[in-house]
Amino acid sequence: xxxxxxxxxxxxxxxxxxxxxxxxxxxxxxxxxxxxxxxxxxxxxxxxxxxxxxxxxxxxxxxxxxxxxxxxxxxxxxxxxxxxxxxxxxxxxxxxxxxxxxxxxxxxxxxxxxx
Length: 115
Fold this sequence. Notes:
The protein is mainly alpha-helical.
């Protein structure tokens, strides 16, 4: 091979190398953009699911609130203590066991020296 043939061979090899790098670069950009679109699509799907779940929760809470009604007080229900016998009522007034002692309140201050 002559000098011009060797130079031409190097130039073609360099051109093919640059062409291959450009194709790989374009494919890398395409892959990157496709991954970004996939993330956006997944995010939109998850957002829609979350919003639907929140709306269902709000509707369930509203339905539960609507179903909940305040019942009127029953007139035939005895008040506390009415249905107990005289013996149990006397035990409440005089409980068995040790008597409860009351302790006088002592004010503690820095001047008293107890702190």
